[in-house]
Amino acid sequence: MSDKASPRVIRKALSEAVWGYFFLTFDFNFFAVSLLPEFVGWILLLSAVRGLEEERRDLKLLRPFAHVMIVLRAFDYLGSFWGLSLSGQFLPLSLLPAAAGLYFHFLFLTACAAIAGEHAAPVVGRRLLFWRTAMAVTQTAIALFVYFRPSLGEWGGTAEVILAAAGILAVLCVMAALRTLRRFFPA
Asked: Which end of the chain has the lower number of beta carbons within 10 A, N or C?
């Protein structure tokens, strides 16, 4: 029995990762309730991790982080029905999920780049590494921005828009690179 995942499993996992990033990045609300709940994105990313584990054993390290993020975001989602939120209530504590998410994305995308390199897609691997780093920088800046926004005065709104646009661009490019990598694995 082979210790590598089948191309079909890898393709499915990469599709789940793209959709996972979609749910994590975009949010459409009906009143205060999200139509694209973030915890669904984490469930999809956990499923992608499980699908890619046979290719990269180090991905198993990400399971606990995904489980924690699923629980936290599910509580936030359920709280939104009553106008409650756990996020941002105590700023130092809100950095812990941000750090966990940052670690998850960095390791996950590094593993995807390694998979690309192993399957004759080194250009896609390098693209993933570039956008992984851009995503890490923007996510770090966004997580820390809440501390510095009050001191920025009127420039705070402009900085917020620039950071959000940079973050969305980085995630869209990661999603595009994952879709390109997906094409290397037949259905």
From this structure: N
